[in-house]
Amino acid sequence: MPGTLDAERLHRALAGIPRLTEQELSVFRCLPTGPTNAQLAEHLHLTVRTAKFHVANIRAKLGGVSRLQACLLAVHHTARPSDPEGTGGAEVSACGTAAVPR
């Protein structure tokens, strides 16, 4: 069914998370709340254009998923019991501050 993430595609998408840059991980961790690019920009002290750029890169690195699917993947990724910080082992800041100050 188009627009759905089957188990294999979900696994491939989640495997792409370690390839995200620190800034992309910072944006990715904010996606579970479904923010707009403007809201991401405000929370992470970025321009709207930069936030949009990071979201596009995240979607591409996760296998071309939709924005909604990226949000759902972020929810799944940050809720993993083996990763209580939801960082995939990467050092990133909490949503609300930029991992890499601009």
Give structural notes.
The protein is an all-alpha fold. It contains 5 helices and no strands. The protein is globular and about 35 Å long.
What percent of residues are in strands?
Answer: under 5%
Low-pLDDT runs of 5+ residues are: 83-94, 96-102
| Main sheet record | none
| SS content category | mainly alpha
The arrangement of helices and strands along the chain is HHHHH
Q: Compute the gyration radius: what is it?
A: 13 Å
Helix share bin:
40-55%
Mean pLDDT: 77
Distance between the termini: 40 Å
Number of beta-strand segments: 0
**Number of H- or I-type helical stretches:** 5
List the helices and strands and how they pair.
Layout: H1 7-15, H2 22-30, H3 37-44, H4 48-61, H5 67-78
Question: Main traits of this protein?
Answer:
single chain, 102 residues, mainly alpha, 5 helices, 51% helix
Offer a quick outline of the entry.
The protein is an all-alpha fold and 102 residues long. It contains 5 helices and no strands.
